[in-house]
Write a structure and sequence with these properties.
It holds the Pfam family RRP40_S1. The chain has about 250 residues and is of the alpha+beta class. It is built from four helices and 15 strands.
């Protein structure tokens, strides 16, 4: 992500055209904290730092908030609540209505081969529809490729809660450079084997064969998030946790 400044904005502040990505090859994508007011105004709806990603031609407001607001394109960890005739009802946040997941929104799914997910099952999914007039809709398949692309049921493992801001930092393409998060890379360097799925909704699923390693990864994430640890503090934390496993 390339950005030269991260100005603070307040709800209703005008945004300078100089801060808006201007790619002609991709449509401008607005993330959390911003609203398009026709015909051409972009207005913050929360207070925070304005972030722009010129490579993806996107922008959003980074802010600390405990309430997740679904945004199309977000990757999330969702829990199955119940199944209807054609779709699942899932929980993505305590503060949002259940999101729907069509039975056929999985790779190669048909009425006979679709996954049979019981209440409590977890899925890694993408938000495809989110507005104030309709319940959110999610999918576990890429609409462009028909492949799962890493989405689908999350089997076993454990889920850990993190702040929304920390989840966004983990999801950055360059989380080490831009997000200042090295903890996962450091844990892997200590020989811990694990899988991870980070949800923009503040849910992080950690899987693997070693339950102790899963717990250590989750603890490292929580302590990094809650303590606001910098890179050097993350290194000390991982060394301490790794030493405790030996």
């Amino acid at each position: 992500m390339t950005t030269t400044e991260r100005p603070l904005v307040l709800p209703g502040d005008p945004i300078s055209p100089d801060l808006i990505p201007s790619s002609t090859s991709k449509p401008l994508r607005l993330g959390p904290g911003l609203r398009h007011v026709p015909p051409s105004d972009i207005v913050p709806v929360v207070a925070g730092q304005l972030i722009t990603n010129h490579q993806k031609n996107s922008m959003w407001v980074e802010y600390n908030h405990n309430r997740y607001i679904p945004t199309p394109g977000d990757l999330i960890v969702a829990q199955i609540l119940r199944s209807g005739p054609d779709l699942y009802f899932t929980s993505i946040s305590p503060y949002t209505p259940p999101a729907t997941l069509p039975h056929l929104s999985f790779e190669s799914a048909t009425k006979k081969t679709r996954p049979q997910l019981a209440p409590g099952a977890l899925v890694y999914a993408r938000v495809v529809l989110a507005n104030k007039h309709m319940d959110p809709e999610i999918e576990c398949v890429s609409q462009s490729t028909g492949k799962s692309d890493g989405l689908g049921e999350l089997k076993g493992g454990m889920v850990f809660d993190v702040s929304l801001q920390f989840a966004r930092r983990l999801l950055m393409a360059k989380s080490k450079e831009e997000g200042k998060v090295e903890v996962l890379e450091l844990l892997g360097g200590e020989g811990l084997a694990f899988e991870i799925a980070v949800g923009r909704n503040g849910k992080v699923w950690v899987g693997g064969e070693d339950v102790k390693a899963i717990v250590v990864v989750g603890r490292a994430l929580r302590e990094t998030d809650e303590g606001g640890l910098g890179v050097e503090a993350q290194r000390k934390l991982v060394r301490r946790l790794a030493k405790g496993m030996k």
